Amino acid sequence: LVEAELSRVAPPHMRVRTLYNPFYKLADNLASCWMARVELQGSCLILNGDTLFEPAIAKRLFAAPAAPITVTIDRKADYDADDMKVETEGDRLRAIGKTLPAERVNGESIGFLRFEADGAALFVEELERTMRTPQGPALWYLSAINRLASAGADIRVASIEGLEWGELDYPADLVQVRALAASWIERERAAAGGTAATD
Length: 199
Fold this sequence. Notes:
The protein is an alpha+beta fold. The protein has helices at residues 2-9, 29-35, 55-63, 117-131, 142-150, 173-192; strands spanning 44-47, 51-53, 69-74, 85-89, 92-97, 107-115, 155-159, 165-167.
């Protein structure tokens, strides 16, 4: 289904291919990243498949100061159990995970990361190490980022406070993210002074 949809939309000037994880029913997204590890070379990005965001968020991440690994974060008044919470010190990531104690939390990851070559290599090394542990395949890939941060790796954050994004976790989320996407398209169209096609 994914391959069929990609062939239908075929983004211009972009080569897209999929990597199938046959263990997706048994493993979590750390295993998916491990299966794609040969692609994680040089400067690269990871974006969660259920994350949608306005174009300004990508621009802000790309404009962030150079760092081996940069994690895009948002900040809000309260965080729930399902948020991928972060602890930061200035622009440095200290910890990331869903079970961080509330008193340490000062942001959440939106699931959009930028890697320079050295950061990608470090991440792949950690994926390799983690996949060889009994619990490795069942972990989130951000647990590897957390271990790197805990070990003192230079991981930075880029805040996107004030910008809009959403997650498509449940069928009920579809209405909200469609409305968000429609507003972004309309805003881009107005800024360009023209029309934009919607699907």
